[in-house]
Amino acid sequence: MRLSPDEIIFWQYGFITLNATIVFTWGLMLLLAVGSKLITRNLSTGLERSRWQNLLEIVVTAIEKQIEEVGLRHPGKYLGFLGTLFLFVAAASLCTVIPGYEPPTGSLSTTAALALCVLVAVPFFGIKDQGLGNYLKSYVEPTVIMLPFNIISEISRTLALAVRLFGNMMSGAMIIGILLTITPFIFPIVMTALGLLTGMVQAYIFSILAAVYIAAATRNREPEPEPPTAT
Amino acid sequence: MLIDWFTVGAQALNFVVLVWLMKRFLYKPILHAIDAREKRIATELADADAKKAEAQRERDEFQKKNEAFDLQRAQLLSQATNAAKAERTRLLDEAKQAADALGAKRQETLKSDAHNLNQAISRRTQLEVFAIARKALMDLATTSLEGRMSEVFIHRLREMDGPAKSGFFEALGTAPEPALVRSAFDLPAEQRAAIQKALNETFSAEIRIRFETVPDIVSGIELAANGQKVAWSIADYLASLEKGVGELLDKQARPEPQPKAKSEPQHKAKPEPQIKVKAKPQAKSKARPKRKGQ
Questions:
Q1: DSSP tag of B51
Q2: Is residue A145 part of a domain?
Q3: In this predicted model, what pLDDT tens digit does every residue of B124-169 receive, in sequence order?
Q4: Which of A108, A104, A96 has its CA nearest to residue A29?
Q5: Residue A92 has pLDDT above 50, yes or no
Q6: Does B37 touch chain A (CB under 8 A)?
Q7: How many structural domains are present in chain A?
Q8: Which domain holds residue A96?
């Protein structure tokens, strides 16, 4: 029994391997990019607009609003990163309804990559917003004694992000696989539906946590919201 | 091994590429479209506000104009009403004046008619009285009225005495022309002779006289010499009658009770025939038009 789509290898040359994770990621990237391109090709600036444009506008404005609610003052700056994070994870989960599809987020490599991206993005946005000195100072606050704890916190939360997403996605796929062997009819469908919900929740949690970390790093001199409890 | 580090790097790269792709194809166009729409809506709202303000301004302006128009209309109406009243008053005055003028004219015509009627009545009365008297005299004395009149005249002449007689005689003497005997009818030769004789006897002198016929005297005879006059005529009676009739007509025109005026004609209707000797200038005594006898 395989736990990760990384194990499905289509092509290998030395350490370069073209596994299912990368291929399905490309597929998702193609789907998202082409779909966006197709829909935004004929955007209307008037009062009349297409259903697809409406859908995309709702999605984008909802993401923007969520980012703003987390406490980031200028959501436009973070929309590219956080929005893409959410859309990628959500698309990866939603596509599980396609037979033969393996969600790339079910691979710890993918989730680790995403967590690393967050790990890099947090200091990136923090330094960009308040300068290198101020950002580094935040590690020794309130006292210098807190420095190792802060560093540990950074690493552990990145790890937690990666493992949480991987565990949820992988478990969903595993449960469906196991149920298919035990009760091939009906019940796997219910679990697939449940998996869709879980995937959406995970996409939301992942991107919201990233937003919270970034917000904490940027310190907009606003009361910082409590990070939602992770499941 | 759950983590393939090559896959991790590839996925990280993939994610960065996906971020760029999403920015390029999704967020920018969508946000741009939303911004453009919001801008457009804001523009339209501002435009609508401007139009509303403009409409409000125009409405105010129209209201002001309407008020001014109402005021002007009221003024014009008031002016027209006043003008109409003035015109009405003027027309009424004119009509009143015209009516007054017409009434005055009518009154005048009435007066004139009354006067004419009066004259006609008096003339007719004279003629009637004359005819009646003539008939009565003829019936009674079997002599003509003229003859009787001459007799009366002669009788009066003979009865003249006192200052009247002396005054007249003086006038006869001083007159450059012969004394004038005027009568309403041609006196027959014997009557002329009788008058001549009576004069001669009365004044004891040869009196030169000439005769003239004047119809206006109305059945009478008068002797005039140098402003002095001796006369007997029905005209006196007639004058009295004329006055009575005239007062009667006046009374009919003005139907006011005049008890005093009523008794007057009766009183004055019976003047005694008398010989009047009046000292008048010759010119004044000829008030009536007369025709000189041949």
A1: H
A2: yes
A3: 877 787 677 667 766 665 556 677 778 888 888 788 777 878 887 7
A4: A104
A5: yes
A6: yes
A7: 1
A8: 49-218
